[in-house]
Design goal:
alpha/beta; Rossmann fold; 3 domains; two-stranded antiparallel sheet; 13 strands; about 10% strand; binds adenosine-5'-triphosphate; binds magnesium ion
Length: about 550
Amino acid sequence: MLSADNKLFVAHCAKGPIYINGQMANRHGLIAGATGTGKTVTLQVIAETFSQAGVPCFMADMKGDLSGISQAGKMSGFIEKRCPEFGIEDPKFAGNPTRFYDVFGEQGFPMRTTVSAMGPQLLSRILDLNDTQEGVLNILFRIADDSKLLLLDLKDLRMMLDFVGKNADKFTTQYGNISSASVGAIQRSILTLENQGGQQFFGEPAFDVADLLDTENGRGVMNVLVADKLMLQPKLYSTFLLWLITELYARMPEVGDMDLPKLVFFFDEAHTLFEGTSKALVDKIEQVIRLIRSKGVGIYFVTQAPTDLPDNVLGQLGNRVQHALRAYTPKDQKVVRTVADTFRANPEFKTAEVITELATGEALVSFLDEKGAPSVVERAKILFPLSQIGAISDGQRLDIQNAAPARIKEYSAVIDRESAYEILTAQYEAQARAEEKALQKKEKEEAKAAKEKEKAATKKSSKNSKGLNRTILGTLATAAATTFARSLANSAAKTITGGSKKTASSSKKSTSTGKKTASTTKKKTTSSKSGSALQKATKSAANTVTRTITNEVLKSILNGR
Ligand SMILES: Nc1ncnc2c1ncn2[C@@H]1O[C@H](COP(=O)(O)OP(=O)(O)OP(=O)(O)O)[C@@H](O)[C@H]1O
Ligand SMILES: [Mg+2]
């Protein structure tokens, strides 16, 4: 709470009140301690003190218990007992101006960002990509830029990836290698992210970080990100907050030394930021944290053991509140010793011993003095908050949402303007239509060509079969006529030389041979018409000479067809 002389009063030790030095509040801080030792309440106390001083804050609410910051607290036996210790006579319980945000849009206004604002490096982290895949994502962003294709939501990213994959040959020479294996791996990661609710995470209207800087009636607004569901995807959560810090850094102007920070950012479960993070990204985080100070932003990390954070980050956290740590195992004991060594020792107690003895709401406290040097560590009791400890009801949450300014309420709308997905879909559709048209044209032409070919083939085959019939029939007819001629000659000779029964029978035989030949001819010829024509021809051939018979046969076949 603010002291009578407007100091940031947050804890009390044997020597008296402990204040955060406003000018050094942007030199970042750490709230650490085992579970249940009082970290969240400490965060609440520090944040509401800043709010009373007109400094807005941002914090993630992991369990719903931070929502109480919006409501006035009330007197309890515990608080009543501590009031005289703290020198507080009549605590003025009050809630803080609060806005709830929720990436999933369920318990607060949606807080979104666009794929392009997130950038390939942070996106690679969310998508768990290896270096090669990150390289492909970098190329994708450059192609999107060069092709003026906006990447807003995940469907833009998916479509762009599809486009880059399909045209890999073309792009590889200009931008670098794009392997189909990498494209496939990124597609799968995007699918996983979508299943985790990533669709709601990316898109428009994108959150404007300037909205975190609001004040109401002279008090800084508490911007609370509802994160119980989001925490189930720690990488998504931490990368989103990292983006928020990066965005703040990019957007806020440089400021000189100030009496108070412009914004205080609390990063709960801060260890998630560094788990499985590449050295390059840790370096980037370290750099952003170091530089954002000059923009008047203070970042306070909240975690169980300080050793969860990289040394170069830990080294930048000047304002410290260390709650109790457990020392059950040799590993725990080592952590306790390491943490104790980071404090400026107090000759009145052994830091390492005290860390394990601290009660709930009690902590080792060391803030930066006016010269920026850490103060001697003190064993202190953290103040109770003037706002409610613990969660609020759904009805109270709704009232707070309804009271938000119209500008903030606009985040509830969903805008899906033309971007890579829409443009590439239209291109694909146009291409598909053109291909369909070309295909239809080709089919038509092929059908026409086939018809013409068929026609030509029919003509040729009918010509061939006519010729063939003619040849066969001609041969057969000649043979038949020759046989007749021979038998006729024989029978004529016999008749001339004197007829006998034998001769007659022989003539009969010869006729029957002729008949047989005719029937053979009939069998061999496919057309019965041709067959009967042949018979007719054969009969008439019997009365004339061979050549005449042949001509007659051919004539009657041709006439008969
Ligand atoms: N400064 C305080 N003043 C009054 N009560 C406190 C204070 N600190 C802690 N408490 C009490 O201790 C309880 C646990 O504290 P808190 O929720 O802050 O622990 P935590 O370290 O955040 O736990 P976790 O790691 O589980 O989130 C609170 O609900 C509250 O009742
Ligand atoms: Mg907590």
